[in-house]
Fold each of these.
Amino acid sequence: MFWQQLINGLTLGSTYALIALGYTMVYGIIQLINFAHGEIYMFGAFAGLFLVTRFGVNVFVAMLGAMIFCMLLGMLVERIAYRPLRGRSSRLSALISAIGVSIFLSTLMVLIRGPQTDRYPDTIEISSFSLGPVQVSSLQVIILLVAALLMLGLQVFIHKTKMGKAMRACSEDLDASSLMGVNVNRVISFTFALGSALAAAGGVMVGLYYNAVWPYMGLMAGLKAFAAAVLGGIGSIPGAMLGGLCSGVLEIFGVAYLASSYRDAIAFGILIVVLLVRPQGILGKPISKKV
Amino acid sequence: MIVMEQYLTQYIDPYYVRIAVLLGINIVLALGLNLITGVTGQLSMGHAGFMSIGAYTAAIMSIHAGTSFGISLLGGALMAAAFGFLIGVPTLRLEGDYLAMVTIGFAEIVRVVFLNLDIAGRAIGLSGIPSETGFLNVWLVAVLVIFLNTRLLKSRTGRALYAIREDEIAAQASGINTTFYKIFAFVIGSFLGGLAGGFYAHYMTYINPQDFGFMKSIELLNMVVLGGMGSIPGTILGSVVLTLAPEMLRMVAEYRLLFYGGLLVLMMIFRPNGLLGDVRWYDIRKRLARNGVKSYGTA
């Protein structure tokens, strides 16, 4: 029972982690809670679905297509709704703008295809095998593997490439990096693209795993992923991964051992308790205020 | 008062009366949130949580304890204020977005708890709440709240709250007890949220946990930011605009929310500090007076 729930929790958690990465990267650089991120994830799930049903492509190809689509979407959103505000308005106005985008995108999806729930066709054969006492489905293995690969790739990218270095510099100090010749706008745009691509991958995998995609799926997933990012320490990339996995596992355990009807409250309850003990999150660095 | 209420509902289109009542409720809600977020600068994204606590407490008191409307309202408001205190004390260590997350989480937990509470009717919601709220009592309270809020913000306490928003460390260095004032803002803000919730419950006569979801909190935050953070006239204007906007946008039917979302983005691009930035009643009066003198002088 325990190990079974752990596997289920890790599967859910790895999708939270993929979404949380987008929140944390954007936050790390421009201190904006990108509320439209949940909707990007939803668009990713639908883009994948569209590719699978219309063109009958392989799920992995569909995931790749969804990632590319969401990259463009993320950059477009940043360009239209956030860049004009940057530097001349408070962070709260940017937040409201993000909320506006979020409402806009979810309504747009309802207008495009109606509010009903759709399911992914059975394109991959799901076999389950037992690993000792645990039943693992091949889908869970795929999700865990893909998530692990993407996160590993992200780590390599952030630490080994020039753009990754620029991103780290920007999250350290935006103005100083701009003075050092980093093209800040390009870095921010790229950060949005990267975060959106990861969210799209998460969207396709959740769509496959729960066999359901609907236009409002982004709201709760976005909130929980944001909670996961905060739990891990917002702005910290390993923190988002850890936070995502932790909240997925704890949510599944909460449902299994406590009360299933309190599912949505569990994630937030844990978060509040952790923040009260460690206000900067698990891996976040305490910020010393400059006077 | 009952006679006047009847007079009103007889001669004015019930549709307009309904919008006016909801506007009054929204103004009280938004002024409460304005105190926390606009004036004191503590980003709260869970104001609907306080509203739902007030609504459910007042409704349960009216239905099960048979208390009078006034007592139920007060009970709901006090209960919300108590939770505001409970949330306010430990969260003072948190800042900015961490606080935002805790308030979102709090409102979500409140929603899920009401979804599972037998006395609150679970997911079916609570119906059969006596219909007590009318145009007059809502607006009487709303005007009173506006007046008291204006007085409060002009007082020593109000200036202390503004100081915390501008620079917490400087405020502390100037001898302001920031802990006390932050809790104070939270308690008063959630009291107003609970009060408005009670009015809402006794107007709709039916409430459901989904009425007080994340989107409701966001709508309230939009009112405060859109109007102008920390400004009472601004918050009122924001409430008016965002209460009327969905009604006006009815003509675009299913594109309503699309426009709403797009408008939020455009507003923030063109008026990033809200419609009325930090304008206070005083500034408006001054400007009107100045204009008056000018036109007199040039004539």
Amino acid sequence: MKNQANPWLTSNLLVLGLGMLPAAVLIGALLYFTAWAFAFSFTDLALVGKKSVEWSWVGLQNFERLFTRKGFLESLWTTVIFVFFSAIVGQSVLGFLLAALLRGTQSTLRSVVEVCIMLGWLLPDIVAAFLWSATTNQTGLINAIFVVPFGFKPINFINEYALPIVTIANIWKGTAWSYLLFSAALDSVSREVVEAAKVDGATPFQRIWLVQLPIIRPHIATNMLFITIWTFTYFPLIYAMTGGGPGTQTQTLAVFLYNQSFSRGNLGFGSAISVAMLVIVGLLSLVYLRMLREPK
Amino acid sequence: MADVSLRGVRKSYGSLEVVHGVDLEIASGEFVVFVGPSGCGKSTLLRMIAGLEPISGGDISIGGKVVNDIPSPERGIAMVFQSYALYPHMSVYDNMAFGLKLAKTPKAEVDQRVREAARILQIEDYLDRMPKALSGGQRQRVAIGRAIVRNPRVFLFDEPLSNLDASLRAQTRIEIAKLHDTLDATMIYVTHDQVEAMTLADRIVVLNAGNIEQVGTPLELYSNPVNTFVAGFIASQRMNFLPVSPSVNHLTLPGNRLLTLSTTNLETVRTLGVRPEHLELATDASTAHLSGILSVIEQFGEYALAYVELPDGQLVTIKLDGAPDLTLHDTVHITIPPGVVHLFDDAGRALR
């Protein structure tokens, strides 16, 4: 490949160094924090007390605890369920369906739906969490409208169906991203290609399934990559709604990590959890990046 | 093979009407070209025949049956799009077989029809390739092949050559003409290129601003255009239009010389039209009808186009055979042979 750098830049090492400085600082900071977490995952560092100063190396003990003690595997399973239903099934499928259905309609309906799903996205996590717990608790709106008037006893949804409720809340919160991405992706499919399929006799469903979906496959993979990583590490909404409870029902890995590190103060174990999360997300990304590759 | 008939066909987008009641009969097996400037409604008309655009008024029938409410696939049409519109994720074979597979055609028949179309279009070697590995011309063939396998009664072409370069366009034009001859199918072809219209069409439909200006064979349109629009649009060099002031048996040309014509009733003539290939050079001013300065000359080898600027600033184009030896900025004298002129009234309508 041709060297496209400015000759004045490449001939002057000092200028070159100065120009690289911001990037070098950024890369350095990223590496420093990752290396910090990685290094301390082999220690018994604590947040407070004696071990916050006189910590010692404990080898693979933290990583053994991930698999031998209760907590990590349960949280991993909760996270998988949460990611699968709220991000992959919920946000992605719902976002795609909305994008496909509202496409081509220039009605007020489209504007209303767009504003509504954008509102969920734009609302701060903590506000959204408060809204959802206020709406779904024993004295909340849902009970007031749908349960009590029909003569049933009020149900404390957020307590009894904690994981479904946080899943639905996250779908509501995150669908806007998938909707926007899929809208843009569908716009990139040539109108004539879709019309050609129509002339060829494809039903609306076949046009989406056999023509548009395969064409936007790379966009789907990109979207999956983003929302899986985000949802896998998503913390504020769940923590503010349930704190991981009741019990550990909604304790995803991010909440588990927070509880271990800052409630229990086990920074070393917390670091091990974060390293494990990094590995899992990294592996998932590899799968999606393979999907992104163009077929031969 | 089927005839197509349009009766009072209209199209409006909201309150804006873009096609104002088109009546047209296309015979079975005919090659009809819709031509006109962009925005004249020619593509909209084609898309209405294809069933891709709802009809706001009137009737479209194919093979004697009104198809207004019949969906595209059941109209017995196939369409070739300007952008080729190949399915980018399917091989050439699958692109061509897609429609047949959707129609649940037996596999052996699909295979036989795809291979037959590929043979006609000489794309047998590319059947396994993806569209992005093909050149523009090859993609166009696949798009045509996709239309052929459907075995349609009517082929619709929407500016199929406009994305090809000039030499490929000329070549593909000839192939489409051959294809029409081989398949003997009704074809409706939309273009803004009057050369494609002249060379391909059995009949040309000239459209302007949502109305049909004239329908006729290429030579009819060339010899007897009904108005200045058709006169200016058809033929490769645009017709010269000169403002004239009429009297009983002669016209006063720009430069105040007179053109005497055998035709009577010249009173209503306002514009004289004459094609560049019909003008002749005169040796001296006394026999000439027009004189001006040679401002540009384009030499094509076999012929040349001379652009002569009249004293009033108007440019007149003359087509000259061979490679004429003319000097720029010299005064040029032009004669207008009688019998080749077109006369138009103040509304631009041709006078006979």
